[in-house]
Write a structure and sequence with these properties.
187 residues, mainly alpha, 7 helices, 80% helix
Length: 187
């Protein structure tokens, strides 16, 4: 998997964290560095940790599914993308539960927004992709977008958070199709 594809996956994965960060910024009403850094560190950290856990799990059975790994990756990315698209219509319901001043809330939101990254880590394992570079990219991009999200949420409210989650879902489904097409027709 090339560098650009990993960046696109990282941005796609970060979209749910970005959307929740915007909602967190909305609850703050204006940007505050402490809560913004807390959100960004938790979201970026968990987005980096979860693919490692998925990758570790996937490497243990990768040789059993090598013949159809591209279907597994396609299925996982399509499922995650579909889930993100579905959730893009539910964001208003989560907005009130995004208080960045509450450590327990931030922790739970970090886990919730990073579950998709666990499945992507599993996809990396079945495709036999080394995990270090993608994890660093995923963590850094999520950190930066989460920080930006809190800022934008405080500044502009929730004008566009639904669209961000929708775009992230479409991107992940597109990458799933790209992996499937590459393996079916070019390998």
């Amino acid at each position: 998997m090339n560098f650009i594809t990993i960046i696109i996956i990282a941005v796609g994965l970060a979209m749910d964290a970005f959307a929740v960060s915007i909602a967190s910024g909305v609850t703050l009403k204006r940007f505050k560095a402490g809560p913004a850094l807390r959100v960004a560190l938790f979201f970026g950290g968990f987005q980096a940790l979860m693919p490692v856990l998925g990758w570790l799990a996937g490497t243990s059975f990768q040789h059993y599914i090598a013949a159809f790994d591209h279907w597994v990756a396609f299925g996982l990315l399509t499922f995650i993308g579909g889930k993100m698209i579905y959730e893009s219509f539910l964001i208003e319901k989560t907005e009130n539960n995004c208080d960045p001043n509450n450590l327990a809330t931030v922790f739970i939101l970090a886990i919730a927004t990073s579950i998709d990254a666990l499945a992507v880590g599993l996809s990396f394992a079945v495709l036999n992709i080394q995990i270090i570079q993608p994890v660093i990219i995923i963590g850094v991009i999520t950190f930066l977008l989460s920080l930006l999200g809190v800022y934008l949420g405080g500044k502009f409210g929730s004008l566009f958070e639904n669209k961000i989650e929708l775009i992230g879902g479409i991107v992940l489904i597109g990458i799933g199709f790209k992996i499937l097409i590459e393996h079916l027709f070019f390998m």
